[in-house]
From TrEMBL:
Cofactor (UniProt): Mg(2+)
PANTHER family: MUR LIGASE FAMILY MEMBER, UDP-N-ACETYLMURAMOYL-L-ALANYL-D-GLUTAMATE--2,6-DIAMINOPIMELATE LIGASE MURE HOMOLOG, CHLOROPLASTIC
Annotated Mur ligase central domain residues: 104-307
Entry protein name: UDP-N-acetylmuramoyl-L-alanyl-D-glutamate--2,6-diaminopimelate ligase
Residues annotated to bind UDP-N-acetyl-alpha-D-muramoyl-L-alanyl-D-glutamate: S27, T148, T149, S175, Q181, R183
Source lineage: Bacteria, Pseudomonadati, Pseudomonadota, Alphaproteobacteria, Kordiimonadales
Amino acid sequence: MTVTLAQLLGGRRVAGDVTITGMTVDSRRVQPGDLFVALPGTKVDGRKYIADAIKAGASAILTTEGTAVEGAGVPVIEDANPRRRYAELAARFYGTQPKTQVAVTGTNGKTSVADFTRQIWQALGFEAASIGTLGVRSGVVKRPGGLTTPDPMGLHEVLAELAKKGVDHAAIEASSHGLDQYRLDGVRLSAAAFTNLTRDHMDYHRTEQGYFYAKARLFGELLGPGAGAVINVDDPWGLILEDIAWARGLRILTVGCHEKAVLRLLNQEVTATGQIIEVLFGGHRHTINLPLVGAFQAHNALVAAGLVIISGGEPRHALMALEDLEGVPGRMELIGESTTGGAVFVDYAHTPDGLRTVLKAARSHNPNKLKVVFGCGGDRDAGKRPQMGAVATELADEVYITDDNPRSEDAAAIRSEIKVACASGIEIGDRGKAIETAIASLEAGDMLIVAGKGHEEGQTVGETVLPFSDIVTVREILVAQGAGNGG
Ligand SMILES: CC(=O)N[C@H]1[C@@H](OP(=O)(O)OP(=O)(O)OC[C@H]2O[C@@H](n3ccc(=O)[nH]c3=O)[C@H](O)[C@@H]2O)O[C@H](CO)[C@@H](O)[C@@H]1O[C@H](C)C(=O)N[C@@H](C)C(=O)N[C@H](CCC(=O)O)C(=O)O
Ligand SMILES: Nc1ncnc2c1ncn2[C@@H]1O[C@H](COP(=O)(O)OP(=O)(O)OP(=O)(O)O)[C@@H](O)[C@H]1O
Ligand SMILES: N[C@H](CCC[C@H](N)C(=O)O)C(=O)O
Ligand SMILES: [Mg+2]
């Protein structure tokens, strides 16, 4: 793919125009002909690498205003906000995007909502994709996951490929990091949704307000007037977002149990394999047999239906499509039963509210004993560790504290930070051993939740990613037990 710098800048005249064959923010990845985006970062200053990038063949530089680039010999574009400009240029570089695109933000539930939105669109007969933590999921393009919200060049490359292959609907996860770093600023959005905001990522955003502000950018800056805003108003932060959406002239669809919710959840009744929900929309009551375990999944499913409805889907069809939803890998996923009759689930709860939500959902099935295996990630918000310990102590009958991607930190130190609020927790660092011990302890009617890694396929220790999957581990243990239903 090739454009001229002038074309990339929207037809602006450029002295000594050059050909641009790609763009990157990393000098180590510069290929001859690339535009190098030199950004100040959280760990190093990318502007230090401009000379390296030029040596590697960069044909132009985009960087902050006032950056001194001596004798560059290539055009230098200065911008007060180079991250945002980079996102806009990435969109123009690839040129095309699916016609209807929506984004989902919130501390928990983004992946679930994006996946359900894709599934509902597909049930309504559209070619659709979801993009996020699980990678790219669609009928025609499948990619493994990396970042939850991909870097602009990666994102626009895939959006262009989807559009060219006939995918006209896409649901994209908007992480707070992604919004803060303007990764989505080149995406043409028809609508966006907010699920909830609770504690996470304080290492990055510092304050709850800073975290909220990053998420609010989606409604306050990215959506254009007339676009749709689907907002969970059961969360107090949702009510603030609703005000922002009004001020911006967005079309609002409120969702939740709250009396002001336009798409309202009236009732939920747990069944062995899911739940029956009663929903009020447009003066009609709908009774829906939702084949998903976990009360929270009803909220995610309604937010997804809201996104489909606000972007033009027929409401009754969208709501009835919920009856055929498939669960999302690693989210409250039943893996099997132990020989003694205990049910084992794998879930991706990695925040205090996520853990609370999943343990409460499990409790609603009246288990004999509720047990949980979990840990906390290294190099991530340390403040959530004792909070997750406290939640586990409060809601589970037996807690196994283990490792979950210690990264550069000392795994034992992370476990002891959890233990501060979970004194009775059984500490087993080796995750496989912890899962095995927990499964061996199960008795008839017990439930075990293995939380925190969900679909992940690695355990990151230092810089090394060791192959590890909760789902595979549980299956192997159940098969070895002779349970015969482990996969
Ligand atoms: C904390 C964070 O979000 N960091 C992102 C940020 O990096 P940074 O600014 O901190 O990078 P840095 O290491 O200080 O380097 C500054 C710049 O110099 C460049 N560089 C560096 C070294 C060199 O030799 N040459 C060079 O050009 C780097 O490419 C970078 O552009 O900007 C980079 C692009 O410029 C991103 O790739 C990087 O994401 C890293 C990989 C990351 O792990 N992010 C995670 C935390 C993240 O975004 N997670 C969210 C999920 C959150 C959720 O689940 O809610 C996600 O969307 O996945
Ligand atoms: N609506 C919800 N409210 C509270 N907790 C939820 C909700 N939806 C999901 N969860 C919990 O959060 C976990 C992660 O769900 P999901 O992957 O959909 O969230 P996410 O926002 O995409 O997470 P990430 O930030 O890692 O991308 C689930 O496994 C469940 O434990
Ligand atoms: N998207 C989340 C995933 C956390 C998953 C957990 N396994 C961990 O490593 O902490 C994050 O980056 O905070
Ligand atoms: Mg996700």
